[in-house]
Specification:
Nucleoside Triphosphate Pyrophosphohydrolase, Endonuclease Iii, domain 2, Endonuclease III, domain 1, three-stranded antiparallel beta sheet, binds iron/sulfur cluster, three-stranded mixed beta sheet
């Protein structure tokens, strides 16, 4: 009932529906018009039909005991299956909806574009990793509540947030920039040349990064590799090429690696294990991962 509908609007329907169909059997056996009548006013009638279909499935095969069995019920997708599995059955599945995606992207300071399936999959994996397997139902409800009441889309209430101490976006001052969601448009190719500058002496093994200005429209405050064009005459060698898509922009990125020139713009040197603790643009993360060691393992998220 709560899909696409506010809690306050649902409560009277929920009570009268349960009054009319107090258990799974009475719902399964009811004529469909009776079910639709009890639902009328709530809209989205496919939910009522699915609910009754699910009641029939349960009366014939028993109540599901696993995540997979829950997903076989009519109208139940991965999110609802995970919510029921964790809350009703105590099974360790993260229930990931738009609110949770937002919270996780901020907790990890993930600058991935959230309509990209890759980003969603990565954030789902991270939500599953964060899940407390001893209390999965409480964990999921806490995440939902956090997203609905504290870590809201606009103006997240960081000063009163119970997980502020472990939030990378708050630490990096990027919470209001995340999650990144861009408008779809015609795809265009963008060629980018980045400089992966290696250091000498005390900066040996470090990489030079610059920070996007606070007034930038996108990813303000995020660190990234400088453009090769910033160093006229600098000689580097091609370390690799990576592709990255941000909604309508298809980036072809060539990473040039070489010793840093004597004169550098404002920026800072980072050891690779320090990179995990700073807000790093996804392009920079990909470019570093590929160009530095040809493997993502060395550049933590
Ligand atoms: S500290 Fe702020 S951005 Fe981070 S989870 Fe809490 S409310 Fe969200």
């Amino acid at each position: 009932m709560l899909q696409q509908t506010r809690v306050e609007a649902v409560i009277p329907y929920y009570n009268s529906f349960l009054g009319r169909f107090p258990d799974i059997e009475s719902l399964a056996e009811a004529p469909e018009p009776d079910v639709l009548t009890a639902w009328s006013g709530l809209g989205y009638y496919s939910r009522a039909r699915n609910l009754q279909r699910a009641a029939k499935q349960i009366t014939s095969r028993g109540f599901p005991g696993t995540f997979e069995e829950l997903k076989e019920l009519a109208g139940i997708g991965p999110y609802t299956a995970a919510a029921v599995a964790s809350i009703a059955l105590g099974l360790p599945y993260a229930a990931v909806d738009g609110n949770v995606i937002r919270v996780v992207s901020r907790l990890l300071n993930d600058s991935g574009e959230i309509s990209s399936p890759l980003t969603i999959r990565r954030l789902q994996t991270e939500a599953q990793r964060l899940l407390d397997p001893r209390r999965p139902g409480d964990f999921n409800q806490a995440m939902m509540e956090l997203g609905a009441t504290v870590c809201t889309p606009r103006s997240p209430k960081c000063p009163v947030c119970p997980v502020a101490r472990m939030c990378a976006a708050k630490a990096g001052g990027t919470e209001s920039q995340l999650p990144v969601k861009l408008k779809r448009n015609v795809t265009r190719d963008v060629t980018v040349n980045l400089a992966l500058l290696t250091g000498r002496n005390e900066n040996r093994g470090r990489v030079f990064l610059i920070r996007r200005a606070a007034e930038e429209r996108r990813l303000a405050g995020f660190w990234e590799l400088p453009a090769k064009e910033s160093f006229p005459g600098w000689k580097g060698r091609v370390a690799g090429q990576v592709a990255h898509q941000i909604v309508n922009d298809r980036f072809r990125i060539t990473v040039w690696k070489g010793a840093a020139p004597p004169s550098l713009p404002a920026g800072a040197w980072f050891a690779l294990d320090e990179v995990a603790g700073i807000p790093l643009s996804t392009v920079a993360r990909k470019a570093l991962a590929f160009a530095w060691h040809h493997t993502a393992r060395h550049v933590p998220n």
